[in-house]
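Continuing from yesterday's entry. The apo prediction looked reasonable, so today I'm repeating it with pyridoxal-5'-phosphate included to see how the binding region is handled. Same sequence as before; SMILES copied from the compound registry.
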Amino acid sequence: MTEKFSTTLREQTIEANLRFIRERIAEAAAKSGRTADDVRLMAVTKTVEPIFINHAIACGVGLIGENKVQEFLSKQPFLNLDGVEAHLIGHLQTNKVRQIVPHVSMIQSVDSLKLAREIDRQCEKLGKVMPCLIEVNIAKEESKTGLPLEELEPLLEALSLMSHVRVEGLMTIPPICDEKEKLCDYFYKMREMFVDIGRKKIDNINMQILSMGMSSDYAEAIECGANLVRIGSSIFGPRLY
Ligand SMILES: *Cc1c(COP(=O)(O)O)cnc(C)c1O
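Holo prediction written out below.
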């Protein structure tokens, strides 16, 4: 295959994948009494080359997510980000915060007080308030990033006093589950926390976004209440590292 031909083929696949995913999102939203407009689709672009990210954007994707600061900053000059939001969704080290905060409109992976404090500090210097999600380690998996459940309350208390970080919701990556029921238990637990925290009306905490669901489980996540799904390989194909 010539390179041009394979590029075109991949672009057509991305377009078809997006159409299929949007239909499934609409179906899952309907099952939970909502419409497709109530669920935001994020295209997760880690390891994807700018040409294909731009193609997804041309197909109507308005939100992209990257995991790594360095990777995003190196691709950003080649992206057509007019009218497109970019969020950081991967584990963030405090020493990278300064570099990333000018370039993203949300950090979905806040999982420690130390990190929250550094985002607050760097955003204060820029005169900016950073919308954030707290990443919760819902199944207490040792290998995973995310905040342990028992640390959620103290972190929210501390965040309520920070003036350059605003909490807008929760994010999670559940464990791989063969049974749908078990998976949904995790998603429902997230939703319950999301609603409970929202009801408490804590200063500086405005629960609007429940970010859960990836390629393998976005339909279930939406049925359980997710309103933002993060989808990578089902849009762009398998990742080549
Ligand atoms: C890679 C990644 C995704 C998307 O994963 P897919 O299974 O390819 O859809 C979603 N969220 C986070 C945090 C990721 O790192």
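Comparison notes:
- The chain has a mean pLDDT of 96.
- DSSP finds nine helices and eight strands in the chain.
Will overlay with the apo model tomorrow.
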